[in-house]
Amino acid sequence: MNIIICLDNNNGLLFNRRRQSRDSVLCERVVALSSESTLWMNEYSASLFSPETVKVDSDFLEKAEKGDYCFIENVDFTPYLDKVERIIIYRWNRAYPSDTVFDDSVLTSRMLIKSTDFAGFSHERITEEIYE
Amino acid sequence: MTKLKQIRLIVALIFIIALFTSCNGGTALSSPSSFDTASQVSEDDVFSTGSVYESITESAPESSRETNNATTIDSIPKYNGKRAYIAINDNVPGFTAVELVTDSYERYSPLDKFGRCGIAMSCIGRDIMPTEERGNIGSVKPSGWVTAKYDIVDGKYLYNRCHLIGFQLTGENANERNLITGTRYMNVEGMLPFENMIADYVKETNNHVIYRVTPIFSGNNLVCDGVQMEAISVEDKGDGICFNVFAYNVQPGIKIDYATGKSWLDSDTSTSSTTDENETEYVLNTNSKKIHRPTCSSVKDISSNNKATSGESKQTLINKGYSPCKMCNP
């Protein structure tokens, strides 16, 4: 499976149990990226997407199969690292408050194979990084 | 109580319940947690109902600040040298039902007898966000303003004219009721992240955020100890934005006399670290917006048109939209 996460400048994920930010253009990009397979997420993340584009399950990391995409906001995917093919990071290129941060040591064994900037709806520049 | 008053009270209670069952507090901030923290947050308790309602007064006053004193500095843990802000009251803001409106506005307190700013209150909406570049605010001298420069401070200057309500939210320029003497650290590390979060949320959703910033002064001090920032998103009842934090008006390595604004180097700060900070220089790729060490192997591949050097701190460059190179990890 492929992991998708969004991070701020300090690798922050959440503050007060809420996402740091959101962007509709990013969501469209995620849907397009995963159009050939299944895009999994939990109930919390599903509010960002059209229902017909995603598969929602509280146990989605367990159920995701090879080639599937998992959009991660408030769950830990590290117990499933053996299943992870690619990690796709969207960087907001902004500083937000955070009390939950992503431990990027999981990237040390991976290679950054692609980095692309694009303009979001409410974000001037979002960077998409793909680690394999 | 008249029938009309009873109806008003019931409506206010329903609104309060609807709002605050979505705005439960998280745990108070400590040092940044790893992803392990996320694993402890189950889907069910992300927005589980809290007990916040129990602390809300039934007869909602016109303004929560008219009846409730702002947080006092005595109730705030001392700065621990790690985080520029700390959650207070479990991140639950102290607004009352009548304050949760969807008509954008901004309101600033008159200066007090010491020339100090007071509470700034606003309902942030897209209609009052700035459409022009920021103007010059140098004409305003907030209380306790004493110009001081230090090599260990990002940008050298200890103090910034800190907007209570950030420019990106309401477009206020040289408004003396909205500018305080704040350290660079509080401005950039303590306040800006929250302003960014509100601004991007409002731009994205077109919703409104009630936002209040309260500078907290000890006694007759001219420089505040910090600012309390409270915010809640209205249309989604706090699902998007909900916080109550205190940002410390401190600058690591610098001592401040809050009564006057005078400052001096903390004797515990080693000279060597000052020198190291001062001598750090990065190579920038202005096209890819990457920060490199001068020794990074990628530097030789940067076109001369896109290459620049900078003595600014890494954090300053990140705040300007740059990101560290993954290879040399500056």
List the helices and strands and how they pair.
The complex is a heterodimer of chains A (132) and B (330).
Chain A: E1 2-7, E2 12-15, E3 18-19, H1 24-33, E4 39-41, H2 43-46, E5 55-56, H3 60-63, E6 69-71, E7 86-91, E8 100-101, E9 112-118, E10 126-131
Chain B: H1 3-20, H2 35-40, H3 64-67, E1 85-87, E2 105-108, E3 120-124, E4 159-163, H4 167-170, E5 179-183, H5 184-205, E6 209-216, E7 226-233, E8 242-248, E9 254-256, E10 263-265, H6 271-279, E11 282-285, E12 290-292, E13 307-310, H7 314-319, E14 323-324
Parallel strand pairs in B: 12-14
Antiparallel strand pairs in B: 1-8, 2-3, 3-6, 4-5, 6-7, 7-8, 9-10, 11-12, 11-13
Instruction: Indicate the mean pLDDT of chain B.
Output: 79
Portion of residues in beta strands of chain B equals: 15-25%
Unreliable stretches covering 5 or more consecutive residues of chain A:
none
Q: Structural class of chain B, please?
A: alpha+beta
Calculate the mean pLDDT score of chain A and round it: 97
Largest interface: A-B, 45 and 43 residues
Distance between the termini of chain B: 67 Å
Looking at this structure, what is the CATH superfamily of chain A? Dihydrofolate Reductase, subunit A
Strand line-up of the largest beta sheet of chain A: 5-4-6-1-7-10-9
- Rounded Rg of chain A: 14 Å
Q: Quaternary status of these chains?
A: heterodimer
Helix/strand-derived class of chain A? alpha/beta
The coarse silhouette of chain B is globular
